[in-house]
Amino acid sequence: MAFRIAAQWLHSCAGCEMAILDTGSRLLSLLDGIELVHMPLLVDNKYHAPDRPPEEADIPPADLGLVSGGVANREQLELLQAMRRRCSFLVGLGTCASHGGIPAMINSWPLAEGLAATYENIESGTPPAAGSIPAPLDRVYAVDEKVNIDLLLPGCPPDPEQIHQVLTTLAAGTRPPARTGSVCDRCPTRRHSMADRPQVRRFVEAAAFDPDRPVAAMPCLLEQGLLCMGPVTAGGCEHHGAPACIGARAPCRGCYGPVAGQGNQMVAMMNILASHGLDFRSVVDRRAMLRFAGAHGLLRPVKPK
Amino acid sequence: MPHQSTILAFCCTWCAYPAADLAGTARMDYPAELRIIRVMCSGMVHPDLVLTALEKGAAGVMVLGCRPGGCHYRDGNTITLARMEMVEELMEDFGFDRRRLFVGWCSAAEPDRFADMVRRMSARLERLQGAGEEN
Ligand code: SF4
Ligand code: SF4
Ligand code: SF4
């Protein structure tokens, strides 16, 4: 019998789904052995009638479930729970699912304040009437805060190579190999010393490098004084032998989330700067270091003093 | 200070911990709410440990190492100082009063200085709690 896969997007931007499609022609060869039983982006199977409560979502049973996006409202929560009930193995796909992702930045404000600020900046000006959209939760959650997840595959979006590997190994009945290490661990740049770098600067001017020479000849961006989040970010985004952004000669923004479990990228990065004698006060907006991993209660409103 | 509050102290194995040990064998008085965690070097105390302790309910955290220049690893306590200055600043992000962290130095032969630092921290926390600004 074919290996049945269900994919459901939650608080997602569809980038993770695009990454699935980006596995390209290999997806086509994979299709011989799998059956996509549910995937709103590709398959219209009327799983969720607007006049029925979402907990009645009609998601077909599957061997493997993929959920992308975090959980921000009741409907997403109930769809996630339905996915958990219907799938024997559930994968959180992408950084939003694993760590909250960009949408979890709203966790920095109390819900009402965040919504008000958001709607002030769009044309209709007022938040939609209660009941016209699903009720928001008190904050944005990662999927593993709400249900048991068998595997988290972070990345914004995850590398198609990894998605393909996970799909093929799981379809073959084995577990994909565990990933370890940071972006730095997989970075080929030249490292020397941070000693003469008193300050970090923003990435408003390009890094110093010779475009005719490989990434391995470029001095480490953090040593160049650029705020590179490589040391505190999980590795896995390599292309052509270098982490994706480093290969493009740009510092890592931290999109794979923390290296270990629910580590705090901001605290870890500030620690690295301070321990190496850099002026941590030269970081303009340190809370932005949690831009990809603010769920799990890491980003929250600053308590008034 | 009420009995249930806890001060967590990270003491380095070369100076602060032996000083605490001496303070004990010499039967010196110091506040009973202290809980000591022995670490090889005060410079290895990760900011996460301090913030987690406060989050889990410690009234205050002390990070105690060798006197400047007296570090067993030469410059471990320089790193401690750099890190803890940063932690003090992060504490505000987390909504903790920065006075709930105490960074101090003593040599292995200064149990009185150790006991005195603990007393000072205990009194400081008592004042903070009295002023209703425990957070
Ligand atoms: S992880 Fe990135 S690509 Fe995936 S849904 Fe979130 S924002 Fe989009
Ligand atoms: S800090 Fe950035 S540039 Fe330097 S080694 Fe790490 S990932 Fe590479
Ligand atoms: S280098 Fe960093 S920000 Fe860029 S893709 Fe990799 S993990 Fe994401």
Helices and strands in order, then pairings?
The complex is a heterodimer of chains A (305) and B (135).
Chain A: E1 3-9, H1 15-21, H2 25-30, E2 34-38, E3 62-68, E4 71-73, H3 74-86, E5 87-93, H4 94-99, H5 111-120, E6 136-141, E7 151-153, H6 160-171, E8 238-239, E9 242-243, H7 244-247, H8 265-275
Parallel strand pairs in A: 1-2, 1-3, 3-5, 5-7
Antiparallel strand pairs in A: 4-6, 8-9
Chain B: E1 7-12, H1 16-25, E2 34-39, H2 47-55, E3 60-65, H3 76-93, E4 101-105, H4 111-130
Parallel strand pairs in B: 1-2, 1-3, 3-4
Helix pairs in contact in B: 1-4
The site of one iron/sulfur cluster has 12 residues of chain A, from helix 7.
Tell me what the structure shows.
The complex is a heterodimer of chains A (305) and B (135). The longest helix of chain A is centred in the first third of the chain and has 13 residues, at 74-86. The model of chain A has no long low-confidence stretch (mean pLDDT 90). Chain A is globular, with a radius of gyration of 21 Å. Chain A has a five-stranded parallel sheet, sandwiched between helices. Chain A has a two-stranded antiparallel sheet with strand order 4-6. Chain A has eight helices and nine strands. With 305 residues, chain A is an alpha/beta fold. Chain B has 135 residues and is α/β, with parallel strands linked by helices. Chain B has a single domain, classed as Rossmann fold. Chain B contains four helices and four strands, in the order βαβαβαβα. Chain B has helices at 16-25, 47-55, 76-93, 111-130, and strands at 7-12, 34-39, 60-65, 101-105. Chain B starts with 6 loop residues before the first strand and ends in a 5-residue tail after the last helix. The structure holds iron/sulfur cluster (SF4) (3 copies). One iron/sulfur cluster (SF4) is lined by residues 183, 233, 237, 243-246, 252-256 of chain A. The site of one iron/sulfur cluster has 12 residues of chain A, from helix 7.
